[in-house]
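Suppose you are handed a protein chain with no further information: no name, no annotation, nothing but its sequence. What can you learn? This example shows the usual starting point.
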Amino acid sequence: MNLYSNKQKWKVALLIFALLTVGVTLFVSNDIVSKVGERERERAKQWADAIKKKIELVRLTNRTFTQLRDKEREKMSLWIDATKEVSKSSPLNQALDQEIPLKIINGNKDIPVILLDHNQNVSGSINLDFDTSYFRKHHPDYSVDELFKAFDDSLLLLAKDWEQLNSSFTIEVYDDMFMTYYYSDSREIVKLENERDSLINAFNDDLINNAGLVPVLLIDTETKKIIGTNIEEVKNDVSHLEVHISKLSKQNEPIVIDLKGGVTNTLYFDASPELKKLQYFPYIQFIVVGLFALIGYLIFSTFRKAEQNKVWAGMAKETAHQLGTPLSSLMAWIQLLEAQGVDPMIIVEMQKDVDRLDKVSNRFSKIGSGAQLSLGDVSHTVKNVLDYLRPRISDKVDVRVSAEDEVLVLHNASLLEWVVENICKNAVDAMEGVGSLHVHVHKTNDWAYIDIQDTGKGIPSKQLKTIFEPGFSTKTRGWGLGLSLVKRIVKEYHKGTVYVLESKINVGTTFRISLPLNVVA
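A reasonable first move is to predict its three-dimensional structure. Written in structure tokens, the prediction is:
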């Protein structure tokens, strides 16, 4: 019967099932991450196309704007020429000469003009967006003179600003009387400029500066100048732009945006923070599930071992109790036989067996309770066990004991005899009653060793870690608790260890019992 072997098979099966579950989970999670990453790359490509279209639209608007400005300048140039012509016309042919120029002058309905005299006083204006009513609204306490003065001061400031955009022109109206004309863009041009600026701002705000997009960096391919980015790290550390570009290039292949005319932009992008977190989620999930499984296993294992300990202790004490009555009876029978003059040799051997049964009963009664350790020669304890076993095992087994003169160890002689006896009986069974059994007791500075060597069939390597587990047995009968109790006695009561020192198939096995020399009673 090998209960532990069956338990191991269930453990392996459950482990395989858990690994398959984790593998499937990781596969599905990684597949989801891969698909999300692919979608983000598609979004980046669509974003690049949107950039290209936006830039093309801005360029088209700029071209249209430039064409309109050129036409407006031509119109203003014609208006200036007409104004000059009117100012030069003689009184005799004034009506004929001024007809066409005046028509041109009066045709200006949208280009704003401010006229200043040679003393830089306002002489007139046309096509302005405001008048004195603007100042009357904001300064209702102003007098008429104050309103006109505020209006004229505003026109003077405005004229100086217009001169920065378009060159003014001066005309001699009368002898030594000059007038200077200042003009600006028409309302349509200003409106178009505002729409263009609004389009560019929308491009920056909605696309480049949108934190909801994947992290992007758009640069001019030739100049390496940043056109736009929503990566704060890049904004705050422009000096290490090449490092950021190299880092982003490793994440995803850059997208080149061809704007034609020899101009190209390059888009670098990274995975979104959500995708990065999602990439680590399967492994975090695996660790968390593994921790819960480990904690659950440790808890249930602790409960199971505690329950086993109670069962073993209860069985042991019940066994000791059941042995008490027949032992008392046997002692009485021995005394009766001795009184009847039976062969003394028979009486002696029977007494040895009764003493042995009493010792076994004493051992069982100590299971589950603290064992009293006393300092003694462990070599003497081992020899006592083998002296008892010699006449009770096959005479074809050569039993030898080699020990140092004195190996003093704190131990419980009764329990330690049980350990040695159990291992030796297993060794005899492994040799099938024929072979050699050698027990060697020796010590070092800190440890005492009991090596039990047999010439049996050996233990397969796959069973070396399981032989001390409850339920393990190679026999057709038995509960498989012998070596488990051996380990418990050595480890828990004597703070030592017991293990297979060496084992070879069809050669033999050596068990080693290690007992510390410095254990305090």
